[in-house]
Design goal:
Keywords (chains A, B): DNA-binding
Helix content of chain A: 55-70%
CATH topology of one domain in chain A: Tetracycline Repressor, domain 2
Protein name (chains A, B): TetR/AcrR family transcriptional regulator
InterPro entries (chains A, B): Homeodomain-like_sf (IPR009057), HTH-type_TetR-like_transc_reg (IPR050109), HTH_TetR (IPR001647), KstR2_TetR_C (IPR041490), Tet_transcr_reg_TetR-rel_C_sf (IPR036271)
Pfam family, one (chains A, B): TetR_C_24
Radius of gyration of chain A: 19 Å
Structural class of chain A: mainly alpha
CATH class of one domain in chain A: Mainly Alpha
CATH architecture of one domain in chain A: Orthogonal Bundle
Number of strands of chain A: 0
Distance between the termini of chain A: 14 Å
Oligomer: homodimer
Shape of chain A: elongated
Chain lengths: ~220, ~220
Amino acid sequence: MNDRSPVPDLMPDLVPDLIGDSGRGNEAAILRAALRLYAERGFNGASMRDIARAAGTSLSNLYNYFPSKARLLAELLNRANALLSAQVSSAVHTAGEGVAEQLGAAVRAYVSFVADYQTAMLIALSEVRHLEGEERTQVVAERDRNQEIFEDLVAAGAASGVFTTPYPQDAARSILAMCSTIATWYHPEGRLTKQDLCDQHARYALALLEGRVDGR
Amino acid sequence: MNDRSPVPDLMPDLVPDLIGDSGRGNEAAILRAALRLYAERGFNGASMRDIARAAGTSLSNLYNYFPSKARLLAELLNRANALLSAQVSSAVHTAGEGVAEQLGAAVRAYVSFVADYQTAMLIALSEVRHLEGEERTQVVAERDRNQEIFEDLVAAGAASGVFTTPYPQDAARSILAMCSTIATWYHPEGRLTKQDLCDQHARYALALLEGRVDGR
DNA sequence: CCGACAAGAACGAACGTTCATGCGTAGACG
DNA sequence: CGTCTACGCATGAACGTTCGTTCTTGTCGG
């Protein structure tokens, strides 16, 4: 377990856009505007008029792309959660065989995602409650799927004795809590680089699990 | 450092009310209603009419007690933050001399507060952004004052070699992040008791700091 | 000519706040 | 002691604004 293995994506300009360009010109602009405004003012604090203005289109035209305000939020959260789970599980699969290595890779991928898609993560943290019914269950299911990746890793490490914490069942949740809230204070121009964040939290996670790096 | 030292308050019914009873009958009811609704639906999602109804009074009468919706939120956050800081620093002062003991006591007090005043903590986490000007700076200052307690403890422990983490400057923030978000998932009737939570997170914090319990 | 995209006007509802009014009571005053 | 007054508490109505959504109309390329 080397402590400064490079994070997958070191060039901020090369970070793939969460929204991309689907050919439909305004769709991306609307999603981007909604992402920013939901994060800045919260779901109820950002009006459809605000979003339309920020996207450079008209209020009524929003409804040619998304049937409701809630559906627009759900669309954003689904994209973010799906990409997050994909990046984390991909990092785990390309990591070495050791559970400690895999958990370190998972934490790095997670932290890296939080830094890259900070606004999306902010929304995912605090705006899910404004969804109901199908929209909500879908988003929550994807979020839980991601948490399970970490829970399984921790359980495996505890079973094999690599993690000696007496609370393996709950440690994964604490690790994710620690990493998620990075979105609430991270500044790309601040003292800590993205690489610093990944290094720190990978080490935090292993320490919290009271891991034995030797592997046995 | 005993791992199961009792948390200050074990009887839920004896937890002092955050709001209390100031003689003014409706004031407490209004604050309690606002606390619950702000936590359930967010600041912008809970209307003054909702709060009045939940408090059992009329809409216009709210303004005989609080001059604005934002001031009502600020009042709640000030009370919560002040009580939190008081309980944490009190716990530190009554703990033993060792830095590790003191940090453990601080974490226990913090977690205990989160469990006791869960709704208040939920609001403090996500609704501060809706405050502006004086109201905001006041709340943020009190929140930072509490964070400094932890930062100072960690710095002292790192300087004396009790905490061997290579990132002492940032570990305190991660510990608080971990403990704060308990408010988002804790259920008093769930598998984990308040005592469990305190034990776990005190241990997490020390492990995260890579503490040497022997003290040197 | 049909469907995707666009815009303005309008809808009813809900928002935070203010106003006008009234009741009860504690304190000042002759 | 009696009375006036001022203030705290309470209410329903109303103000102007903004909300999410829909309607109507129109353009334009395949």
